[in-house]
Design a protein that fits this description.
2 domains, alpha/beta, Spore Coat Polysaccharide Biosynthesis Protein SpsA, Chain A, 11 helices, 317 residues, seven-stranded mixed sheet, 51% helix
Length: 317
Amino acid sequence: MYKNKEIAVVIPAYNEENLIGRVIETIPKFVDKIIVVDDASFDKTHIIIQEHQNSYKKVILITHKVNQGVGGAIASGYKWCRDHDIDIAVVMAGDAQMNPDNLPSLIEPVINNKADYSKGNRLFTGEAWENIPRIRYLGNSMLSLLTKVASGYWQVADSQCGYTAANKKVLQTIKWDKMYKKYGQPNDLLVRLNIEGFVVVDIPVEPIYNIGEKSGIKPIRMIPRLLLLITRLFFYRMIQKYIIRDFHPLILFYVSGLFLSLVNFFFVIRLISKWMLEGIVPEITLLAVVFCTFVSILFILFAMLFDMEYSKYIQNR
């Protein structure tokens, strides 16, 4: 127990035989349950978890017969916590990249009812640029920016950090079976949290790398999928939040901006083709390109400002 709240840590694990033992052993003593989800590992992960169950009675093992992805493993852990009336569910990776010493500060705003969901942010520290591999840092920063737009949580960053804490209301409200099951799970969940009006805060956490972890992330394959997912999530939130649940004028600004961007695309194609094939630049077309470019940008920026203002109530309590 921590301040009279029952705490569970959910650990998704897939082929983590080298580090899963270390993760279990370093979980703080105040944690009541350790839910390890073996996502159909084919190494010794399952055996190591079972061995630790003999020494740590609080360890609960959930086994997937078919690999579901990290999001699917987290969903299984969340559902166990929901069904067993856990007060706060924390997610920690099975590769020991999340410092257990940061756990109290992560759950503190949730326990004090200042937030429904807190997430780690590895970018707060000045050491992030030095400790995080460059390509992952840059990719994370780009995805974080896009996730701000898609999720509506403009005040949070490091969207791919999976070190999180959720309260009982979040566990009971979100439909976990519909959550994205792969590496885009944090992005998907942020959008769902925004639609439901949950307060989310960022908490500084220490980035840990080069401890023997093996990344299953393949940037060439993952980034295009995440970009497509984030785009889909943006439109999903717009429809759910600003059309179905509460029609808001920002939709008109976004639609107008996107429409003018589409029209501008054809004007640009015509301008380039005229210039390359005939060596001329049609003045009317050029003016249309300039007009559509500036006005579409203004419409989209106004829509973002409306979104920021509307989302202020879920930034803090």
